[in-house]
C-alpha cells in the first residue's frame, strides 16, 4: 500500500540513511513458486521501494538470480565454473528487467545498469553515471553481479555499496534478521539485535559471503538484515523501527 502523506512526513523526519543499497535475492522473487518470478511478490516489493523513494532516500538495488539459475549448483553438477557463473549473471538481468518494469508501472524512474554490456536492453555499469542517476532521484538496479565469475551477488552488493558511497547495505531476507539457529527449523531460535562484523565471521553465521562482510567492514558500511516479505518493512528499518539485525563495527 502506498505511503500516505502523514506517514511520509513522519518517516522522513526520522530517516537515518540518505543513500542505501538493498540486496534482494532471486529466491525472494519466487513467492511460493518452486522457481521463476511471482508477479504479486515483485509488485509488492516495488511498492515498498516506492515508499522509500517517496521519503527522499536514494536507492540502489542489487538483485540475485537464484530463482532462475544457480551457477554454483550447475558447477557442482560438473559444468565449468566460469560458464556457470556467467549464466547466473544473465539470470540477474532477467530479474532486474522485471523489477524495472514493475517500478515504472508505479511511476518510479528506474535504470538498469549491467556489469556485462548489453546495450539493447540496459546501460553499462559506470560508477559516475550510477551516482548521477541516484542524485536525480532514480532507482538504479545493478545487474550481472560484479561481471566476473567466482564472485557472488552478495559480494557485488558490498562492492557497489562501497563504490557508490552508500550509508547502509540492507539485506532483504525471508526472515526478520540474523538468528542463532534456523528459525524455520528451530522454534527456540533467537534473533540478534546487533552483531559486529567479527561476530558474523567468527560464528560463521552465513548472513552473506565472508568476502562481502569483509568488504563492508573495511569500508565501515553498516549491514541491516530484515524480512523482505513483511510489507512496509524496508521503510520502517530505515527509520529505526521494525525488526532487523544491525551488523556494524561495534555493538
* CATH architectural arrangement: 3-Layer(aba) Sandwich
End-to-end distance: 34 Å
Give the class-level CATH name: Alpha Beta
Query: What is the count of DSSP helices, taking H or I runs of 4+ residues?
Result: 9
Descriptive keywords:
nine-stranded mixed beta sheet, 9 strands, 9 helices, 39% helix, alpha/beta, Carbamate kinase, 251 residues, disordered N terminus
Describe the protein's architecture and organization.
It is a single chain. The protein is an alpha/beta fold and 251 residues long. It has a single domain (5-248), classed as Acetylglutamate kinase-like (Carbamate kinase, 3-Layer(aba) Sandwich), CATH 3.40.1160.10. 39% of the residues lie in helices and 17% in strands. It has nine helices and nine strands. It has helices at 5-14, 39-53, 71-76, 81-105, 127-135, 153-163, 197-202, 210-218, 233-238; strands at residues 19-24, 58-63, 110-114, 123-124, 139-143, 168-173, 194-196, 223-227, 244-248. A nine-stranded mixed beta sheet has the order 4-3-5-2-1-6-8-9-7, sandwiched between helices. Helix 2 links the parallel strand 1 and strand 2. Helix 2 crosses helix 4 (81-105) and helix 6 (153-163) runs parallel beside helix 8 (210-218). It is globular. It starts with a helix and ends with a strand.
Amino acid at each position: 500500500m502506498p505511503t500516505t502523506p502523514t506517514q511520509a512526513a513522519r518517516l522522513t523526519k526520522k530517516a537515518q540513511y540518505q543513500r542505501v543499497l538493498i540486496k534482494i535475492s532471486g529466491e525472494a522473487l519466487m513467492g511460493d513458486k518452486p522457481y521463476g518470478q511471482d508477479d504479486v511478490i515483485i509488485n509488492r516489493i516495488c511498492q515498498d521501494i516506492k515508499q522509500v523513494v517517496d521519503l527522499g532516500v536514494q536507492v540502489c538495488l542489487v538483485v540475485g538470480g537464484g530463482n532462475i539459475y544457480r551457477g554454483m549448483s550447475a558447477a557442482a553438477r560438473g559444468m565449468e565454473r566460469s560458464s556457470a557463473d556467467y549464466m547466473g549473471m544473465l539470470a540477474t538481468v532477467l530479474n532486474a528487467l522485471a523489477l524495472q518494469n514493475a517500478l515504472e508501472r508505479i511511476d518510479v524512474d528506474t535504470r538498469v545498469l549491467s556489469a556485462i554490456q548489453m546495450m539493447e536492453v540496459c546501460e553499462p555499469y559506470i560508477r559516475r553515471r550510477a551516482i548521477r542517476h541516484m542524485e536525480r532521484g532514480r532507482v538504479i538496479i545493478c545487474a550481472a553481479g560484479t561481471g566476473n565469475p567466482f564472485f557472488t551477488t552478495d559480494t557485488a552488493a558490498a562492492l557497489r555499496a562501497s563504490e557508490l558511497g552508500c550509508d547502509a547495505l540492507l539485506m532483504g531476507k525471508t526472515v526478520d534478521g540474523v538468528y542463532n539457529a534456523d528459525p524455520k527449523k528451530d522454534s527456540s531460535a533467537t534473533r540478534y539485535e546487533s552483531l559486529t562484523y567479527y561476530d558474523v565471521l567468527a560464528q560463521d553465521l552465513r548472513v552473506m559471503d565472508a568476502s562481502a562482510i569483509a568488504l563492508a567492514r573495511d569500508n565501515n558500511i553498516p549491514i541491516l538484515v530484515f524480512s523482505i516479505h513483511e510489507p512496509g518493512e524496508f521503510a520502517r528499518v530505515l527509520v529505526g523501527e521494525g525488526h532487523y539485525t544491525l551488523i556494524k563495527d561495534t555493538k
